[in-house]
Design brief:
Length: about 350
């Protein structure tokens, strides 16, 4: 179905989505990971991906051997997965001649390759484009603050919950806290204290700010990301609502596998330099270091997480609050008038 291919370096670039509501809603972007993983599982291979343990709150890489278990490793968890625990298992499967798909951040793929020390024809690698991870310890501090407010323990956090706001509006701001009593807290407003800190690059691991794996020259067979920047000129309302992946096919091994994906996986060529790369910093450079990072880490163990974030982000929050208040009072026409008057007064027009 793909008529032409758009290349950047050695890679082919596509926009893609899985045409199945259940897969799409449980995936962070367009479900490209599931389409690739299914091919390997149908060939009796093994798929390694990051899972969340509700008891320990560890995120770690686990092997999945059937399609029914794939949901365990779907979806983005925003803190570091203990992928290294899986490397020895990966090697065992590879040495036994079993096809292995390993999916993680690019640095984890690099570490696996280092560990293996040689290339394997039966290894396929997928990296999810990553602007950085935080740690379990920071997430626990955030959860403790939320538990205190709700007077209820949190069972799990869905960092990218779909269905709360349209994916196009940035579902990174759309989280769900699941409490042990079955209640939930929906977060969609972009000023949640975890979201502010994570997307503001305040709480990332030190190495993320010096990441060697950003850019368009990728280390894995496949690279997956969100297709931020896409709009209704090239995607349907359905997809803008539910998610679209950028699928980067970096090697011939990946090209072969792509020929075997489900017919429900839809993909078409894109020009990477038009929207995919310019709208996604991680295709260009590591995240900038937040100047308040040192203050955060100096205090976060001893201070309430929420209080600390509100202190660090006070100027931003006040500005935002004033903006929204003005919008509510004067309405959209009033806002336009204020903007144009301000432009004139400052010589802008
Ligand atoms: C920490 C993090 C930061 C990200 N930052 C960006 C970004 O800046 N821009 C962007 O476009 N996309 C980013 N993504 C990638 C994006 O959110 C999707 O993961 C990707 O597009 C694949 O989505 P999917 O719908 O195909 O499959 P999904 O089912 O959503 O992806 C599942 C895959 O993600 C992997 N994964 C999930 N959590 C982790 C983790 N903690 N560590 C390692 N692997 C993990 C699993 O191993 C699994 O293979 C990030 C993902 C993560 C985990």
């Amino acid at each position: 179905m793909v008529q032409q291919v758009n290349k950047l370096g050695k890679s082919d670039w596509y926009m893609a989505w899985y045409q199945d509501d259940e897969v799409l809603m449980n995936s962070s972007s367009g479900g490209a990971f599931t389409a690739i993983a299914e091919v390997v599982l149908q060939d009796n291979g093994v798929v390694f991906g990051a899972t969340f343990d509700e008891k320990t709150w560890d995120v770690y890489h686990k092997p999945v051997t059937c399609i029914e278990e794939l949901n365990d490793i779907r979806g983005s968890k925003y803190y570091q997965s203990q992928a290294f625990l899986a490397y020895a298992d990966c090697k065992k499967y590879l040495d036994a001649g079993i096809e292995v798909l390993f999916s993680g951040t690019a640095c984890q793929v690099a570490a696996l390759k280092n560990y293996l020390g040689k290339s394997y024809d039966n290894l396929i690698t997928v990296d999810v484009l990553c602007h950085g991870v935080t740690s379990k310890s920071v997430v626990k501090k955030y959860a403790t603050a939320e538990e205190r407010k709700a007077k209820q323990p949190i069972k799990s956090i869905a960092f990218r919950q779909k269905g709360l706001i349209p994916w196009r509006n940035g579902c990174g701001a759309s989280m769900l806290l699941n409490y042990t009593d079955g209640t939930q807290k929906v977060i969609t407003d972009g000023i949640d204290s975890f979201f502010l800190a994570f997307s503001g690059n305040l709480i990332l691991r030190p190495s993320c700010y010096e990441c060697h794996f950003t850019g368009t020259d990728r280390i894995s067979d496949f690279t997956l990301s969100d297709y931020w920047g896409v709009d209704d000129t090239c995607a349907s309302e359905y997809n803008l609502e539910k998610g679209i992946s950028v699928l980067v096919v970096n090697t011939d091994k990946a090209r072969d596998l792509l020929n075997r994906v489900s017919k429900d996986f839809i993909y078409g060529p894109i020009d990477p330099m038009e929207r995919a790369v310019p709208c996604n910093l991680a295709f260009t450079k590591p995240p900038p270091r937040n100047e308040k990072k040192a203050s955060f880490f100096a205090e976060y163990q001893s201070t309430d997480y929420d209080r600390l974030i509100h202190k660090l982000y006070r100027p931003y929050l006040i500005k935002r609050c004033v903006k929204q208040g003005v919008k509510m009072v004067v309405g959209p026409k009033g806002v336009a008038m204020i903007k144009s008057t301000f432009k004139k007064l400052t010589g802008g027009g």
